[in-house]
Amino acid sequence: MAISLTDSAANRVRNYLEKRNDAVGLRLGVTKTGCSGYSYVINYADEIDASDIVFEDKGIKVVVPADALKLIDGTEVDFVKNGLNEAFSFRNPNISGECGCGESFNV
User: N or C: which end of the chain has fewer CB within 10 A?
Assistant: First the structure.
């Protein structure tokens, strides 16, 4: 089981974590939404709950709620810039389909 970060994602997260004194890492999860079923939720982890699973990649702690791990295990998180747009993107080996707009996925 693992969640990994590209160099670009790790650098982006590291820059923001340095500005936040209370954050311990990156929190990655999912929520039921959209036309395909699930959407990623990404935020800073201000604390680690007893039920969280913690991975470390490139010096960044990635905190995942245990119930979300089965849906996103093996995911690689990237940070991409395209012109003026920039966003995190996800390469999830578990998905079986995505909606047309790319906002949600199913497994």
Answer: N
Question: Contact 83/38 with Cβ under 8 angstroms?
Answer: no
**C-beta neighbour count of 81 within 10 angstroms:** 10
- Number of neighbours of residue 64 by Cβ within 10 angstroms: 23
Choose among 80, 65, 82: nearest CA to 26: 65
Q: Which residues of the chain have pLDDT under 70?
A: 1, 34-36, 96-105
Residue 44 burial class via C-beta count within 10 angstroms: exposed 0-12, middle 13-18, buried 19 and up: middle
Contacts of 76 (CB under 8 A, 6+ apart): 3, 4, 5, 6, 90, 91
Residue pair 42/26 in contact by the 8 Å Cβ criterion: yes
The answer to whether the CB of 5 falls within 8 A of the CB of 58 is yes
